[in-house]
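USER:
Before I trust my own judgement here, I would like a peer's view. Write it directly below this note and I will take it from there.

ASSISTANT:
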Amino acid sequence: MPHDMVFITSVEHFSYLAIFFFALFSGYFIPIPEEIILLITGYMAWAHIIHFTPAIFVVILAFIIGDNILYKLTLKHNKHVEKLIHEVLSLKIVMRHRPFLEKHIGVTIFASRFIPFLRFAGPVFSGYVKANETTFMVFNTLAIVIYAPFVIWAGYFFNDYFGQIVLEIAKIKHVIFILIMITVGLIITRMIDNYFNKIDEVKE
């Protein structure tokens, strides 16, 4: 049975618990990209299998918990995340611009959330470079709160094109969407970065 059908069948039987489980482990232990989970969630809300608002809250909670677990495991160099660490450090953008990404860790955390199929990039890189836990929590949560509802909304309102949207994600990875969200994110995160820098200056 295809992975997306397993998800739909599970939700039909276990509702929000299934959504939480799949959202928590998607991209890590469950071989389904989180973008697909979000789109299917929106589609199922449209089909009245689940309710739209509660589903959003469940997904956001699952993403926050999953990302923070991965961040802390990487921070402690847990052996179970060694493969993910290697994958992140071997990414071309990380290899070429690591000093910049580390210096502007807030922007890095926020922007990485909008890269399809690389959900683990932000938490792993943040943990590896030992980014401040508060900084990770703020920027990662902000990105999730923007990203998750938007993609669920896409699955809900564009239900007639659900199949085509899923296929396009696999093909072109929503490049335009990523660029738009990163631009918005840069503006927001720069403001938050300045705020944290001022706090650090006061402490020093």
Remarks:
- Residues 69 and 123 are 9 Å apart (CA to CA).
- The radius of gyration is 17 Å.
- The chain is about 80% helix and 0% strand.
